[in-house]
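Kinase: structure tokens wanted.
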Amino acid sequence: MISSRELPNHADLQPYNHAVAGHDGTLSDPNGELFIKPCVQQEIKFYEEAFEKHPDFASLMPVYLGTLSLNSATDVESLEEQLPVIADHLSQGLKEEAVRAAKAAVAEAVAEDAAGQGEDVRWKPNKNRKIPTNQSVVLENTTYGFKKPNILDAKLGQRLWADDAPTEKRQRFDAISKVTTNGSHGFRIAGMRVYKGSDKPEELDSDSYRVYKKDYGRLQVNKDNVVGEIRKFIFNARAGIDEDLGQAIAQAFLDDLRRVAEVLSNAETRMYSASLLFTYEGDGEALRAAIVEAASFSESSERRKQDQVGDDKAIVMEEPVGKGTTLDAELVSGHIEGDLRVMEFLGDAVDGEDEDDDELSNLPRIYSLKLIDFAHAEWVPGQGPDENSLLGVRSLIEIFEELAR
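Answer:
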């Protein structure tokens, strides 16, 4: 649920700076509560059908808020008509900038696409990473609410091209898959950001992140070192993520990966170049504080529940689609002990109708795992589950089982 806080004015807006893979042109406010991402109609259709007909699958996706269709006549009034759910929460400056920036990105991408067209033109990689489209999807940002979000984008599948891909694209993507972990494991690290991820200042950006771009997953990660490279994402003593805390986060991701596998095994889709986006609080001190606060909330909620119904069972918080996660009452005692179960607290999981809901929506985030990027995704009733994507999910399960031990 989008909060009612005032969002920034025109001068405060900036490109979304937590992206580790994907296309350019995404607009975000400084706090990253939502973003507007250029996309094709196929992706919009996939989102809409998921949230309308497939609630279990929709629970794996970022919260979908609507779409924008832009043309030369688009203005703030038409934006408000297209996005009635969130229009009241957007400042006038953000609305104006959303229209201006999206139009500019579309015009540039379309112009460059047209310039390259001709009778003998062949498919070529989109080096500017901009999509020639006049449509954008509006999503709630899964990294919002973290102090220092660590992010890993895992691109799923051995086959990365859709049925309508030209021959040149198929050949290029098959070559990438063959020499990367897409071929050996069914996924590839498409990008990664790790807070305090290096002892060398020159390897860190201005926010103290080590950023691993797409060439990292193509050229440096292979079937023999992939577990160790993902370990760099989870375990980071420089940022206060020690073995116990890292194992706890790995276990949390493992639980959600098993959930993803279950949902995909019961869904009839075909997704090419979709990704799993792993996010967790990368500042160890903030992560421990978030866990302690979550434990305190769980304990107080349980006491209130017991007062009301006399039930001494552990409280179970549920996401909108019914996914329940139990949170142990005693999580932190100087250091993490035992088999810690970490719970993700989602702002959209509540409707603000009672005291618990208000407190829950203000809790700091711990971790998040979401399925993203559906430009080449479709529903295929009668054709069974997407084994191409499931291969990558199952490989990730095996890796996180090892990291959680």
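Residues 1-18, 116-121, 312-353 have pLDDT under 50 and may be disordered. Residues 9 and 389 are 40 Å apart (CA to CA).

Cheers.
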